[in-house]
Design a protein that fits this description.
The chain is mainly α. The protein is built from 13 helices and no strands.
Length: 354
């Protein structure tokens, strides 16, 4: 019996201090190095994607449009695609400059608010759910494929009767209230989400729901919903639960990476549209009779390919970004709850509004 108590105490001394003792912070040394690498790549990769995408989105179409004019083509012949013979040192310098520019551009995307792609992700996920349920109902009612009126009616009925059960919910009263007050986000996608308490409670996570100080059905508690609620938890977990905090950082870095790629691809689409409009204006007002169809075909194909790939990338991000943000907040809440159990009296959950 005494041996068991000693072993229990020994295990307690081995396990518990690792969660908060300063001398044991090296337990997260590996992740402490790994997370900045993930964040660095989360900044660099979108910048590389954007700068690389500029080639088919802007550079090739502009060059092909200029080459379409016989006189311009003759003047630029042999020089517009001229690539200097660079030595190894010069190539290294060019690569370094490219990466620096990519990092700066990527940093601008990295600092964008994930709320915008999150909103698009929520809309896409919700529309996919409506379409899936519409198809199921059409199949169940055996509606003929040529009966478009019946299909549209079923789609409207599904949209009206759809019950949102996530932390973001659309209600008629809220939508009217938001339109009246001209609020920027009628879908309540401010993070953390308005109906987070109801979502957790309905999912059976009542121990996490109890941590949420606001209620989606109680407007009097809306002022307690703030990002600081989550940020305070993360700051405290950094001291008390360093290993889990690095996992939180890693999840957040992945979300930022996906949001940055979404912004980068959207930027490429915008640039490609402006270039396409410019080419059309060039074709209509300047030298329509002298344009070479082949050159313009290459420009059009380049722009179209860029837009298609960019749209596909955006849609892929939108398919799961909203789920990832929900996963992130649930992970933070569970980590804070569990850390409070392992380290009672450390004040992890104090003064959070609840």
């Amino acid at each position: 019996m005494n041996n068991n108590n000693k072993n229990h105490e020994k295990n307690g001394r081995e396990i518990t201090p690792k969660l908060w003792a300063p001398e044991n912070e090296s337990i997260s040394s590996f992740w402490g190095v790994f997370v900045p690498i993930v964040e660095f790549l989360g900044i660099l990769v979108p910048g590389i994607v954007f700068l690389t995408g500029l080639l088919p989105a802007a550079i090739i179409p502009v060059v092909m449009s200029l080459r379409a004019h016989p006189e311009i083509s003759r003047d630029l012949s042999g020089s517009i695609f001229w690539i200097p013979d660079l030595g190894q040192a010069s190539m290294f310098l060019v690569t370094a400059i490219f990466l620096i520019i990519a990092y700066v551009v990527g940093h601008a995307f990295f600092r964008q608010d994930p709320k915008v792609p999150d909103q698009h992700s929520f809309k896409k996920i919700r529309n996919n759910m409506i379409q899936r349920r519409t198809r199921e109902k059409i199949k169940h009612e055996k509606v003929k494929f040529w009966n478009l009126r019946a299909k549209r009616k079923i789609g409207k009925d599904v949209r009206k009767t759809l019950v949102d059960d996530g932390p973001v919910r659309l209600l008629g009263e809220e939508r009217r209230d938001n339109e009246k007050n001209q609020k920027p986000n009628k879908y309540n996608l401010e993070f953390p989400y308005r109906y987070l308490y109801e979502y957790l409670h309905q999912r059976g996570l009542k121990h996490l729901a109890g941590l949420i100080p606001w209620r989606g059905s109680d407007p009097g508690t809306y002022e307690k919903r703030t990002k600081h609620f989550i940020n305070l938890m993360k700051v405290r977990l950094e001291f008390v639960f360093p290993r889990q905090y690095t996992r939180i950082q890693r999840n957040e870095a992945h979300i930022r990476l996906m949001a940055s790629i979404w912004y980068a691809t959207r930027g490429l689409i915008s640039i490609a549209k402006y270039i396409a409009i410019s080419i059309i204006v060039l074709y209509v007002f300047y030298y329509p009779s002298e344009l070479r169809v082949a050159a313009l075909s290459i420009a059009a194909a380049s722009i179209a390919t860029t837009c298609i790939l960019a749209i596909v990338s955006m849609r892929q991000v939108e398919n799961f970004l909203h789920y990832q943000r929900i996963r992130e907040i649930v992970f933070i809440l569970e980590a804070a709850h569990f850390a409070d159990k392992l380290a009672p009296g450390r004040g992890i959950l104090d003064n959070l509004g609840n």
